Each structure stands twice: as structure tokens, then as C-alpha cells.
Amino acid sequence: MPLDGLGGRALAIVNQKGGVGKTTTAVNLAAGLALEGRATLLIDLDPQANASSAFGVVAADRHIYDVLIGRHPLSQVARATEIDTLHLVPSGTDLVGIEIELANSENRERLLEAALAEAREHYEFTIIDCPPSLSILTLNALTASDSLLIPLQCEYYALEGLARLLETLERVRDRFNAELAIEGLLLTMVDSRNNLSRQVEAEVRSHFGDRVYQTRIPRNVRLSEAPSHGKPVALYDNASAGARAYAALTREILSRSVLRDPPLRPPQLESQRQAKSEATAGEASPAASQPEGADHGRYA
After folding, report:
1. In this structure, are residues 44 and 129 in contact, taking their beta carbons and an 8 Å threshold?
2. What span, in angstroms and rounded, lies between the C-alpha atoms of 109 and 39?
3. Which of 52, 98, 131, 293 is deepest in the core (most CB within 10 A)?
């Protein structure tokens, strides 16, 4: 996954099937990259907002819907997390009806791409959690991304759903994003004691070879528990099998990447600037203070 010039890389986590570990992967990969010191932005593009709640963000007042309809720029919606090098753009229920709202919008497939243009300068990795459908939201993610990571649950119908996704990928390449690549296929919910799980893994690896990550994500209770505590698994139980697996996936992805040296530092967010300004307001002279709203919509 090489860096494109001076801009960072956008990686969509995609599978139209639900329950395959898509959001779990988005959350824990983003956290893993950030914990490795890489400035990372996680965008929750799923109306269910599970990636947002995994960081303790519920009913955000500003979220990705506001970005897509042009109400706020991405820099005003992104928020800090417990990990200094990770920022989150949360989702919300307003996204549910966006397909109808954008029906007659020009370039509706490129709204996220336009919003990401500035952010790419400030984050080495942007991870996009897509909804479990091939909707206008997923199309926006594929058009805006450099590559996609496909989580595959080790079950009987895994390859059947993958075939449809690959057909969509080709259509997106033809019409919107000729450079879109497959970053890799990730086997999730693996149970090596299960014959079917082993058979599905063998079949996927025989079909896709080195496109399949060596790392496998096991079924793990800690992975399921962590979101209810508002934390990625690395902060919830770093010694768990799930945490170790996502740490290995992070290292595998980084080993395939051309990385910045030194790493980028994430931008100061508007909310952080406001908090700093309020903390020092008593010391600042009236002449030195900025008018309300100054520098809105820009990363520092």
C-alpha cells in the first residue's frame, strides 16, 4: 500500500454481508495503526454507527452526514479519541435516508472523495467503515479510496458474496475510480477446530493466493466485549487473542507499505483549538484574540 505522493492512503473496509467482522476490523485496524504512531482517521460511514459507539461516541451532534450534504467540512466533524494519533468522524441515524436525499445530486458518488481532499494531507491512513450493503454510501467509499480490505467470515457462503462484491469493484473501476485496488482479504471469526472453517480458508487461499492476509482473526470473546466499553480491543485487553491478531494484521499491512519518515502528527482539531483558547482566554489580550468562527473548516 504505497503512499501516493504527499497524500495519505484511504482504505475502505467493505463487505455487503453483515456480521463478518467489518466494523470490528475498521475499529481495531485504525487503532492499531494509530498505536504504531501513524496519524489515522477513522470514518464511520455506516448509519448503524457501531464504529462510533466503539469509541464511546453516541448521538454525535456533528457527523459524516453533515459532511456529505455540505453543512460542515470534515475538519469540523472529526473528533479526538483516547489514542492521540487517532481521530474519528462519527456516524448518525440521519444517514439512513441519504440515498433518497442525494437521488438528484450531481456527482453524488464523489461527495466523500471531495471531503477527503484536504484530510489526506494530514493523515497517513484513512480507514472507512462501510455499511453492509452496496449502497450510495459504499459507492462513495469506493470512489474515494485507494484500496479496499474485504473481511471474510469462514463460512459456507463466503465466496458467493465475494463474487458480487468483485463485480461491483469492476464497475467502480470502469466508471469512477480506475486505480481502486484490492488491499487484501482478511479471514475473520476463524475457528481452527472447525472442519468447515479450515475448508473455507483453504479454498479462499487457493483462489486468491497472496491477496489473503497471513493474519487470521479468531473468534474471541474480548473482541465482542470491547465495544460495550467504548474501547478498541488493544485498550480493553491487549493480551487477548483478538488484540494480538489485530496487532499482527497492523504489522502485516505496515510491512507492505511505504511509510513516512518521520511519521505525520495528526492535525489539531477545531474542538482542541477551542478548548485551548478557552483555557488561555483570561491571559489573552482583546487585541490578540481572533473573532468567533475564525479558522473554521481548516486543519491546524
Report:
1. yes
2. 26
3. 52
Cα gap 49→1, rounded to integer Å: 27
Decide the pairing of beta strands 147-153 and 9-13.
parallel
Three-state DSSP class for residue 20 = coil
Alpha helices in the chain (DSSP H): 22-35, 50-53, 64-68, 74-77, 98-101, 111-119, 136-144, 158-175, 195-208, 221-225, 233-236, 241-255, 270-279
- Number of other residues whose CB lies within 10 A of the CB of residue 177: 19
Fold of 9-267: Rossmann fold (3.40.50)
Q: Residue type at 284?
A: A
Residue extents of the structural domains in the chain:
9-267, 271-300
Question: What's the pTM value of the predicted model, to 2 decimals?
Answer: 0.88
* Angstrom distance (rounded) from CA 295 to CA 67: 17
